[in-house]
Amino acid sequence: MSGGSPQIDFSGLIREGDLVLCGQATAEPVTLTEALMAQAAQLPPFRMMVGPIFSDTFSAGRAPNVAFQSYGVIGNARRLARAGRLDVIPSNYSAFCAGFAAGSHNADVVLVQLAEAGNGCLSASLSNDYVIDAARGARLVIAEINPDAPFTFGAEWPVPIHMRVAARRPPVELASAPLDDVSHRIAAHAASLIADGSTLQFGVGRIPDAILSSLTHARNLGIHSGLINDAVVDLIERGVVTNAEKGIDPGTTVTNQVIGTQRLYRFVHQNRQVAVRPTSYTHAQNVLARINRLVAINSALQAGLDGSVNSEMLNGVAIGAIGGQLDFVRGANASSGGRAIIALPATASDGTSRIVANVETVTTPRADVDAILTEWGVAELRGCGLAERARRMIAIAAPEHRDALSAQLRGCAG
Fold first, then answer.
1. Residue whose C-alpha is closest to residue 174's, from 146, 135, 211, 203
2. Please, are residues 154 and 268 in contact by the beta-carbon 8 Å criterion?
3. Which domain CATH number covers 302?
4. From 19, 137, 258, 267, which residue has the greatest number of CB atoms within 10 Å?
């Protein structure tokens, strides 16, 4: 693909106060978003809705007349948050998407990356999210047609397009992070909770990648997830993931987003064994409850001694997201034989404990928590009283923090 500036001029297209919404994560239409940010200083002030950001498009120092919004802080969105330029809407991802479907959220301009099949049909490709519903009510829909984006089934594009632009960049890629000792130890504990025939949900990051990589000897796993990554290709090619025992969608890997590298994109291209479905299906409680042995694997920033989970904020700053965590935790709890796993390192990069007396904010309430694990073990919390929960949580904290946590617990009891 050629570089250079795209042939689109946003002057006259963006009006003062507009909410401009673009595809998220690897579905970001980079040709369009780069052009918009390059021209933003010459445009009237507008708002920009972003999701997870894995490109370098949205620099915190650019476009001071743009007010950024998001439902969470994932990837390079943290740069905007640290600079105080990201207004976070605290919402479950599924509810955020449903708001556009219901018309309670609206966008004026929608920028989207699409894939085109040989017969002219279009697909939302890498993400079947809120963008389609936002486009239904938008004044202007601009599509970047990307020949390197895979055509995926389930994400066929149903909305009229007002302008088309040829992509000058391949889709954004997100390679797996190198695995370390801590993630391997966490993965070993998680693998002990995942039975043959389980259906997996997981997120982005080193720990989910490590857990998936540890399952190469499992049998007949299924996938029903908010996203899939390159590790899924390995499991399918090894015959570990067959989707044969899910109870629904037999033989089909179901996801809402595709986040990985060109290897993954080539795999999902026109592959009818992969369905990129909307959140009204991937995150729906009545769907999740029908899945056999749904195992939800999610991460956290903190976990409290009572089992409460914080995946959103530290020291008053938003650095995470609610995302689909609570949807999948509750779905796994409702699934026959399901497990809801929260996995996190016992310590943060600065050495402080991630197991704390009280979390800063609650993403997943203690009443919904099943199992929490760190590299030091598994705390099985379902059915446990508060005193036993605290004992089990302290046991999976890093050894150097256990005495302090016990002292804090005694202080609270006194």
1. 203
2. no
3. 3.40.1080.20
4. 258
Instruction: Identify whether 9 is part of a domain.
Output: no
Residue among 30, 258, 283, 279 nearest 152 (CA): 258
What is the number of structural domains in the chain?
A: 2
Residues 48 and 194 in one domain: no
Any residues with CB less than 8 A from the CB of 49 and at least 6 apart, and which?
A: 19, 20, 21, 22, 68, 69, 70, 107
Q: How many CA atoms lie within 13 A of 40 on its CB side?
A: 25
Verify that 230 and 254 share a domain, yes or no: yes
* pLDDT digits 0-9 by tens, 110-132: 999 999 998 999 999 999 999 99
CB 328 within 8 A of CB 224: no
pLDDT (0 to 100) of residue 413: 56
Express as a percent the part of the chain with pLDDT over 90: 92
Residue 411 confidence (pLDDT) above 80:
no
Residues 6+ apart with CB under 8 A from 102: none
C-beta separation of 306 from 389 below 8 A: yes
Q: Which two tokens stand for residue 309?
A: 């989970």
Q: Which residue has the higher pLDDT, 150 or 3?
A: 150
Q: Is residue 171 a part of any domain in this protein?
A: no
Domain housing 43:
19-166
Q: How many CA atoms does the CB half-sphere of 397 hold within 13 Å?
A: 26
